[in-house]
Predict the structure.
Amino acid sequence: MPLVLAVAIVASQDRPYGDEDPHETYAGEMAALRKLAQEALREPSSADDTHAYVDLLQALLGFEGVDVWAEHLDGLNDEEFEVPCPACASENFIAFGTHGYFSTTDSRYMCEGSARKVPLAPRHPSEMADSARRLHARAIADGRPGIADKLTFVFGDAHCADCG
Ligand SMILES: [Zn+2]
């Protein structure tokens, strides 16, 4: 999808041409790309394709300049984020979806076994930060309750399975 490629270029921190901010240098192009992404999100033809929807949502965030999520929102499609614990540095897998809603340090948590799983605490949209709340509201408005539900976990609280 061309929009997804475009945003990967825009959001990349690895820029060959110095500190130039594409959001300033190409403000007009960014506005046009935002409009295209918004139109595509409302496109009924992608109604059954959750992966494509998340990719487009990620593209929109990139064109809006929310670079962190423009590079990582696709974790929604994988139903997993991998993050180091800020306290003990253990790699934690934050899983939300088919296998349940929990954090664990066991990368093979999808298999039967004794992996320690700490339940995630979802956050109510009214308690989310602005950008997260907007994302949640957009998913609801676009008829994506499943995505909206995952966002409450992604923006909720997780505890380290090692030291938490
Ligand atoms: Zn820890």
